[in-house]
């Protein structure tokens, strides 16, 4: 089928989506949220999602600006962090030579000079994870606040949803690089910081662990916010990502070839967060995430581009 034909939407289907969208934009009383999500789920199965998340071009509305600016200041550092991690070579050789030749002051100084910049990098990565944790909390507060349901938040606050996605994309990218380029926190910082850094880098996926803990903490500290508000936000985002990936009509809207991988990383990221927060996890029969469908979408992609994502799900 020609790409142009794939992008055409059946008029009746489009009218149904518009009707559902117009209804979903009205604030929903908390007691009706579960019923609305069931309706949205049925509509999604039959027609696809009623919202397209514009991961490429979404811009903040006036209502989103305050949170968007706060998170944007953190995300501006993300590309630099990944670039530094990619170029991280370690100082194993210099350290071994210094240990083997304890009396050689030149080798001791060489090792010291090699280690110090690396410690500074590792400290920067760790401190960035703390800022990322705070940014995630701000986004969760915005995307789960009453009176709107998860799908309504995604429709109304596309720029914040995009930032949430960018945090997950960075997180999985960082952890994939870390797994292929092991990092070790040297004890050249104060003891308390060294201990926290050591625990951070001891994790196979340290950034994802940070976000998972932050999400769990967000749920436990917000006693007045039902846990379903957070888990439904995550499952809805996973659902929308899956349908966007498996539907040519939505895929053809991507203008950047990297958006497919971006969308897959986001889908896997929200699944993992959901699994950490939900009492029975993402793989249970009662889960609101179609895990078979999500895994099927991943396996349809070239194995070299999704191997890390599938491994991340296996570790859940």
TrEMBL record:
Heme in keyword set: no
Location, primary (coarse class): membrane
Residue ranges of every copy of the CYRIA/CYRIB Rac1 binding domain listed in the record: 51-182, 186-314
Lineage: superkingdom: Eukaryota
Cellular component aspect of the GO annotation: membrane
InterPro entries tied to this protein: CYRI, CYRIA/CYRIB_Rac1-bd
GO molecular function: small GTPase binding
Keyword Membrane tagged: yes
Topological relation to the membrane, as annotated: Lipid-anchor
PANTHER family reported in the protein's UniProt record: GH09096P (PTHR12422)
Protein name per the record: CYRIA/CYRIB Rac1 binding domain-containing protein
């Amino acid at each position: 089928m020609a790409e142009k034909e794939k992008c055409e939407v059946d008029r009746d289907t489009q009218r149904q989506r518009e009707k559902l969208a117009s209804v979903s934009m009205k604030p929903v009383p908390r007691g009706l949220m579960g019923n609305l999500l069931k309706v949205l789920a049925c509509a999604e199965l039959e027609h696809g999602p009623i919202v397209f998340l514009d991961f490429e071009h979404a811009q903040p509305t006036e209502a989103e600006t305050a949170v968007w600016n706060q998170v944007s200041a953190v995300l501006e550092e993300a590309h630099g962090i990944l670039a530094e991690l990619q170029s991280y070579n370690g100082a194993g050789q210099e350290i071994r030579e210094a240990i083997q030749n304890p009396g050689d002051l030149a080798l001791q100084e060489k090792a010291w000079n090699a280690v110090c910049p690396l410690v500074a990098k590792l400290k920067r990565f760790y401190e960035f994870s703390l800022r990322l944790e705070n940014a995630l909390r701000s986004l969760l507060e915005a995307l789960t606040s009453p009176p709107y349901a998860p799908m309504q938040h995604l429709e109304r606050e596309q720029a914040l949803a995009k930032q949430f996605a960018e945090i997950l994309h960075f997180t999985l990218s960082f952890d994939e690089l870390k797994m292929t380029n092991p990092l070790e926190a040297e004890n050249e910082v104060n003891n308390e910081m060294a201990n926290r850094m050591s625990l951070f880098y001891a994790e196979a996926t340290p950034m994802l662990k940070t976000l998972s803990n932050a999400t769990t903490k967000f749920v436990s500290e917000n006693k007045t916010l039902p846990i379903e508000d957070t888990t439904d936000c995550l499952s809805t985002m996973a659902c929308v990502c899956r349908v966007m990936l498996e539907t040519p009509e939505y895929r053809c809207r991507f203008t950047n070839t990297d958006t497919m991988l971006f969308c897959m990383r986001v889908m896997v990221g929200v699944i993992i967060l959901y699994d950490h927060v939900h009492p029975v996890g993402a793989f249970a029969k009662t889960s609101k995430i179609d895990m078979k469908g999500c895994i099927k979408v991943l396996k349809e992609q070239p194995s070299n581009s999704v191997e890390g994502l599938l491994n991340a799900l296996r570790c859940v």
